Amino acid sequence: MPGEQSASLRSGSNLMLRRGASACCMATLVLITVTIPGQEKPLATSAPAYGLAERQLPPPSQGLLNDCLRTQSETFGDWDLGGQVRVRYELKENGGINPNFDFRRAGVDNDNAYLLLREKLHLGYAPCSWFGLFAEGRDSSAIGDERHPSPDADQVDLYQAFIRVGDPKQFPLTAKIGRQELIYGDERLVGNADWNNVPRSFDAAKLRFENPNLWVDAFAGLVVVPVPHQFNEDNNHDWFSGIYASSSTLVPRQETQLYFLSRNASTKAVGAVSGSLYPLPSARDIETAGARVKSLPGQRNGWDYTAELAGQFGSINLAVPGAGRRRVDQEALAARCDRRLYLGHSPIHSATRLGIRLRFGRSRSARREKRNLRKPLSDQPQSIWVHGFFQLAQHARSASDRQPPARKTVAGDPGL
């Protein structure tokens, strides 16, 4: 994640079914890992050490290449040099090319198999604790893909390039300005879509306030549009902004997050960039407000939980059957709750989890426009089909429509 478009609304359900029907064989290989990524994740991702006694751990690696260079000379202490190579093979049967022909075993060739390659190289320089520069290039290619053009192929391009100013240990305000990733929560609403072979970045400015009790991010930017064989530029008619706050002390043993997101695209956004790998958005003004809670690792005797509630409102320019393109209101409510138990006594064996997931959605069907798209508009989502459904109900109607009775749905999703 990769922006939202009116075309994606009409094909969202087919996309989920297509990917669900695909038989995929995947192999991922990371040759060089880095410990200073272009975008820090707000939440810790280390595995909880359930059942382990505390022990002294060795200092973390700064990356294979950095560790080697820094042992040779102290001069390299201010530099960050590294990269990543990822290889994945995908085999899709009856769901690989034409979404309108999924699940048809005869009369159409809808199989696809291809090899995905992605390489990243980055260079960072931080002469002091309060100033740093970072640049990262990316190359994505697909071999044997029958889709033309392949949405997973975008030749050598600039993925990140930003300046970081500030040191939270000395002063609570820091800033990051330039091309960068934006990653928040479980990335259901805002993420870099790293599963895709062409990940997402933004030309953005972000200001962070941080102290031992909480951090608050305020950001505004433009999503970068991938165009094969051209330098990727942003869509300057599609603005994305928001405020995201997180605290691990507001509620004991829990990470509590609040956010407000806004996406504003003008009528020029849909044709602002030619040759894009993905459809560009129609005119819209969408606001999303929500809250997310997550238990801190190792604090619940093997149990963990996550819950999120988000509401959305605004308007979007859509094609209405029998009425042409019209500006319709967008209202949506979605909720999700997970509670799981780790099995095992070490981070290695505790990857197996038993749990239950509950989803709740509320929607009103618009009689006049006969719309029930069944999902809110994700602002800049990660690949939702990988992370699960955070898309339950959508209400799209014209301002003059009468409101029919509300319909509520509750679904249970036990999983292992």
- Could you report the average pLDDT, rounded to the nearest whole number? 75
How many domain modules? 1
Distance between the termini: 26 Å
**Helix and strand sequence:** HHEEEEEEEEEEEEEHEE
CATH topology: Porin
Shape: globular
Can you give a write-up of this model?
The protein starts with 5 loop residues before the first helix and ends with a strand. Mean pLDDT is 75; it is low at 1-54, 345-350, 363-375 and 381-416. It is globular and about 65 Å long. The protein has 416 residues and is mainly beta. A hairpin with a 3-residue loop joins strand 6 (202-210) and strand 7. The protein has helices spanning 6-21, 64-72, 384-387, and strands at 79-92, 112-128, 131-143, 154-165, 173-180, 202-210, 214-225, 233-251, 254-265, 284-295, 303-320, 324-342, 353-363, 395-397, 407-415. It has one domain: Porin (Beta Barrel), CATH 2.40.160.
How is the topology of this model organized?
Elements: H1 6-21, H2 64-72, E1 79-92, E2 112-128, E3 131-143, E4 154-165, E5 173-180, E6 202-210, E7 214-225, E8 233-251, E9 254-265, E10 284-295, E11 303-320, E12 324-342, E13 353-363, H3 384-387, E14 395-397, E15 407-415
Antiparallel strand pairs: 1-2, 2-3, 3-4, 4-5, 5-6, 6-7, 7-8, 8-9, 9-10, 10-11, 11-12, 12-13, 12-14, 13-15
Q: What features would you highlight for this structure?
A:
disordered N terminus; globular; Porin; about 425 residues
